[in-house]
């Protein structure tokens, strides 16, 4: 898979984001209502990547910076949004590659912790995050009080140069 940094509103990103929103509708009955500004995913305060197989967009994910202390979020956090792999490309480790790239880019941008919100009806996402070193944390954001919401975090350890 070739990973390419793109804008959040790049046509391939939009196509994949539409796909993940359809999954949310199927599983939860509605799209993700979290407010998102595409500019939040541009450097230096954000990042968005699309993964391509044979020239076709098959995976995506991004992060946006949080620099205001709003418990449990804290300055230095990078919130993951729109992690997605199309059905036909699942089971090949692509989500793990996107996640590793998000972590690398966030670490390089000086972020100190990755945080995310997912839902309890997404067992494949939960398994990915747990197996990648993420731990449960108090809920935050638009779904703070939603019983189906689960939030996770992982400290980003600087790499030796």
Q: How would you sum up this structure, described in words?
A:
This is GNAT family N-acetyltransferase. InterPro entries: Acyl_CoA_acyltransferase, Bact_Acetyltransf, GNAT_dom. Keywords: Acyltransferase, Transferase. 26% of the residues lie in helices and 30% in strands. The chain is an alpha+beta fold and 161 residues long. The chain has a single domain (2-155), classed as Gcn5-related N-acetyltransferase (GNAT) (Aminopeptidase), CATH 3.40.630. Strands 1-2-3-4-5-7-6 form a seven-stranded mixed sheet, with helices on both faces. Strand 2 and strand 3 form a beta hairpin. The protein is globular, with a radius of gyration of 15 Å. The two termini are 26 Å apart. The model has no long low-confidence stretch (mean pLDDT 95).
List the helices and strands and how they pair.
Elements: E1 2-5, H1 11-28, E2 46-53, E3 56-66, E4 77-85, H2 94-108, E5 113-119, H3 123-131, E6 135-137, E7 149-155
Parallel strand pairs: 4-5
Antiparallel strand pairs: 1-2, 2-3, 3-4, 5-7, 6-7
Helix and strand succession?
EHEEEHEHEE
- Overall residue-averaged pLDDT value: 95
Total separate domains: 1
CATH topology: Aminopeptidase
Note the total helix count.
3
Q: Which sequence of strands runs across the widest sheet?
A: 1-2-3-4-5-7-6
Spans of at least 5 consecutive residues whose pLDDT stays below 50 are none
The CATH architecture term is 3-Layer(aba) Sandwich
Percent of residues in helices: 25-40%
Q: What gyration radius follows from the Cα positions, in whole Å?
A: 15 Å
Largest sheet properties: 7 strands, mixed
DSSP strand tally: 7
Q: Globular, elongated, flat, extended or rod-shaped: what is the shape?
A: globular
Residue share in β-strands: 25-35%
First-to-last CA distance: 26 Å
Output the structural class: alpha+beta
CATH homologous superfamily - what is it? Gcn5-related N-acetyltransferase (GNAT)
């Amino acid at each position: 898979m070739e990973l390419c940094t793109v804008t959040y509103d790049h046509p391939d990103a939009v196509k994949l984001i539409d796909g993940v929103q359809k999954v949310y509708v199927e599983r939860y009955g509605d799209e993700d209502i979290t407010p998102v500004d595409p500019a939040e995913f541009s450097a230096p305060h954000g990042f968005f990547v699309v993964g391509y197989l044979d020239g076709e967009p098959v995976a995506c994910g991004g992060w946006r910076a949080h620099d205001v202390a709003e418990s449990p979020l804290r300055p230095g956090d990078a919130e993951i949004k729109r992690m997605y792999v199309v059905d036909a490309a699942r089971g090949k480790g692509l989500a793990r590659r996107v996640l590793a790239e998000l972590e690398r880019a966030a670490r390089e941008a000086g972020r100190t912790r990755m945080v995310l919100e997912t839902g309890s009806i997404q067992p494949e996402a939960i398994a990915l995050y747990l197996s990648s070193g993420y731990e449960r944390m108090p809920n935050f954001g638009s779904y703070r009080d939603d019983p189906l919401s689960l939030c996770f975090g992982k400290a980003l350890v600087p790499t030796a140069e």
